[in-house]
């Protein structure tokens, strides 16, 4: 599903933090500061946390969750959990997403 890979243990090699579990972010959040983003927290819906910016969220809404179009827009990146935490702390959390795909309920 993702164009990026982890090893069999679900770990990635981070140049800064070493070998760690990972989160997934859209390419726009890498290096971003003060940007609005949405997050699926770890363990709620997904085994790994996901975060994406408001631009990607527009595509998610407009395409009704079309994975290919979202992936094209987002350019998903696998990053270690320390880097993930850094990104989420430097940007503005718009909302946690705890319901995904074909479920109209509000969290
Ligand atoms: Zn994005
Ligand atoms: Zn890292």
Give a quick precis of the structure.
The chain is an alpha/beta fold and 107 residues long. It has helices at 54-62, 67-74, 81-90, and strands spanning 11-14, 18-25, 36-40, 50-53, 77-80, 92-96.
Write a structural description.
The protein has helices at residues 54-62, 67-74, 81-90; strands spanning 11-14, 18-25, 36-40, 50-53, 77-80, 92-96. With 107 residues, it is α/β, with parallel strands linked by helices. The protein has one domain. Strands 1, 2, 3, 4, 5 and 6 form a six-stranded mixed β-sheet that branches. A hairpin with a 3-residue loop joins strand 1 (11-14) and strand 2 (18-25). The longest helix has 10 residues, at 81-90. The protein starts with 10 loop residues before the first strand and ends in an 11-residue tail after the last strand. Bound molecules: zinc ion (2 copies). One zinc ion binds next to helix 3.
